[in-house]
Amino acid sequence: MAITVVGSVAYDTIETPAGRRERCLGGAATYFSLAASYFTDVRVIAVVGEDFGKRQEAVFRTRNIDTRGIERAAGKSFFWEGSYLDNLNEAKTHITDLNVFAAFEPKIPEPYRDSEFLFLANIDPLLQRRVREQMPDVRLVAGDTMNYWIKDHRPALLEVLKGLDVLLINDTEVRMLAGNSNLVQAARAVMAMGPGSLVVKHGEYGATLFHKSAPKGNGAELRAPALPLEEVVDPTGAGDSFAGGFFGYLAAQPEITPAAYRRAMFYGSVMGSFACERFGTERLQQLSRKEIDERFNLFRELTHID
Amino acid sequence: MAITVVGSVAYDTIETPAGRRERCLGGAATYFSLAASYFTDVRVIAVVGEDFGKRQEAVFRTRNIDTRGIERAAGKSFFWEGSYLDNLNEAKTHITDLNVFAAFEPKIPEPYRDSEFLFLANIDPLLQRRVREQMPDVRLVAGDTMNYWIKDHRPALLEVLKGLDVLLINDTEVRMLAGNSNLVQAARAVMAMGPGSLVVKHGEYGATLFHKSAPKGNGAELRAPALPLEEVVDPTGAGDSFAGGFFGYLAAQPEITPAAYRRAMFYGSVMGSFACERFGTERLQQLSRKEIDERFNLFRELTHID
Q1: Cβ pair A95, A80 in contact under 8 A
Q2: How many beta carbons lie within 10 A of that of residue B153, not counting itself?
Q3: Could you tell me if B217 and B9 are in contact, meaning their C-beta atoms sit under 8 angstroms apart?
Q4: CB contacts, 8 Å: A208 with chain B
Q5: Could you tell me how far CA A151 lies from the centroid of its own chain?
Q6: Nearest to A99 by CA among A31, A154, A51
Q7: How far apart are CA B102 and CA B1, in angstroms?
Q8: DSSP string covering A279-296
Q9: The complex's ipTM?
Q10: A218 in contact with chain B, both atoms CB, cutoff 8 A
Q11: Mutation to test the B interface, candidates A171, A253, A303, A306, most B Cβ within 10 Å
Q12: For B217-231, what is each residue's pLDDT tens digit?
């Protein structure tokens, strides 16, 4: 089943202890679609500027990602510059230039309208909501957000949450959104805002899945690990890649069962771990399904005692 | 098989968001032995002062823990006061009074000498070494340490590490000991100092097991989760309780296989999770094997996708 994703397609300048890359292809929708493309059809809604070239578009096309919803506007593409010199777990943002995203009016191309799955990547909740409203009949909607929207755009974000089946956010964000420092209590409070399922990403420690119904393990359904990596070259996009693996796997299943959610968590961790191995989207551009399944099995060995 | 453990038996004054307790029974050897006592025979080597009462001793006796190696000295017992008001993951230490531990000369009671397992809980590495040297023939030696010994008593600690089969420390400690912020690289460096196996405890995110030989998953053998807790009443002793569950389970096995290590990690997480549910050792004093096995199964459900 096809996924439509709305979110940023951007240029990133990134500095990590492993080096520096100027203006490489980035953006939440980019990482998400590359990761999800190994599991199912993906269609992107975004806006780029006149600086967006054929080489960048080819990255999507090589992975058979539908780019008819990537609008070209006068001006420059979204640009982000950040570094991880002191702490690989948290980016220090130096520059965020919204550029063409500032006036973006998302439109759904006709051929996207039969998508059964919708992913609202991390952008302005007003844009997330507009896309959600234009696709009322999708089967499953998942989304992401970040501290900036939680702090300064709470009412708009709360509206988005009402329309979500699954929210994927990190530790700091779930605690900030709930105003509660206990993970279990914060998860319950956030699910009361709308989403029936919640994935809390713990960076190098993996992620926890919560379901509103049928809670076990104090409300937690599954804790998936992250792969301990010998070298984290660039953690940019790891969370979006997790979301792509998670939602891509779900969308490819004939039935969305609790067991499918559990396996989806592992595929999320798998794609997140690949993302960190090279700068930008380099690693996600050239994976094989065999590599993905081998890593999936490694994750199983890393967690299963029998 | 019996475990001999050397470490602190102490009084703790603890403040957490859930309340405050004055001078409750504490100390690394106390938490360790209570947790391990659900799996195997435990014998304690420690020193206490004249303030150590019958009620405290009864806590050990009720769990059939051998206290003949707990020496009584003139003066006061080890005392620690700390709080977790801002951060449940890290204690803020207000007072550490070594008292009778300052002049402690550990002696091994004759009936302890046939112990096949030895645990060197977190105390001065000079004391750990003295006990290790008096028990050269044990089958398996595990130990713990902390930032203070790593920073200011490194040469003595390095001597202890040479004699260890398993070291159990936390994230910050392994990175500090190795001088390397990458977990995989730090683990490898620490195992090169002696221990063939290393357990790195991640607090609320669980723990990772590394083996020097036969590494898989970038050197990590198993990642065990921690149970997301609705309320962490008091995290004091969670790491020592993890060690007690881990080593207690290992000591009770007919053979120490890689599979036994993997299950031991889960029993460590189980005992660590119980420790946090009440103040001090309250919860560890009155568990049943049935409760322990139910929680073990919950951990399995929380991690296994099939």
Answers
A1: yes
A2: 15
A3: no
A4: 228
A5: 20
A6: A51
A7: 31
A8: STTHHHHT--HHHHHHHH
A9: 0.90
A10: yes
A11: A303
A12: 566 789 999 998 888
Tell me, rounded to whole angstroms, the distance of Cα A145 from its chain centroid: 9
Query: From the CB of residue A180, how many other CB atoms can be counted at a distance below 10 Å?
Result: 16
Which H helix or E strand runs over A132?
A: helix A125-134
Q: Which two tokens stand for residue A295?
A: 């890593």
The dihedral of CA B262, B268, B271, B277: what is its sign? negative
Confirm if B123 and B153 have CB atoms less than 8 A apart: no
Identify whether the C-beta of residue B46 lies closer than 8 Å to the C-beta of residue B71. Answer: yes
Q: Report, as an integer, the average pLDDT of A91-115.
A: 95
Whether the CB-CB separation of B241 and B31 falls below 8 Å is answered with yes
Strands (E), chain B: 3-6, 10-16, 19-26, 42-48, 66-72, 78-83, 92-97, 117-120, 140-144, 166-170, 197-201, 207-211, 220-224
Question: Taking each helix axis from N to C terminus, what angle separates A183-191 and A171-178, rounded to the nearest 10 degrees?
Answer: 60
Whether the CB of A105 is below 8 Å from some CB of chain B: the reply is no
pLDDT tens for each residue of A185-233: 999 999 999 999 999 999 999 999 999 986 555 667 899 999 988 889 9
Is residue A304 less than 8 Å (CB to CB) from chain B? yes
Tell me the residue type at A268: G
Nearest CA in chain A to B230: A184
Backbone angles phi, psi at B301, to 5 degrees: -60, -35
CA-based nearest distance B170→chain A, Å: 13
Radius of gyration in angstroms for the set of CA atoms belonging to chain A, rounded to a whole number: 18
Q: In this complex, how many residue pairs, one in chain A and one in chain B, have their CB atoms less than 8 Å apart?
A: 106
| Mode of pairing for the β-strands spanning B19-26 and B42-48 | unpaired
Angle separating helix axes B183-191 and B171-178, nearest 10 degrees? 70
Record the pTM: 0.94
The C-alpha angle B162, B167, B168, rounded to 5 degrees, equals 160
Convert the pLDDT of each residue in B147-196 to its tens digit: 999 999 999 999 999 999 999 999 999 999 999 999 999 999 999 999 99
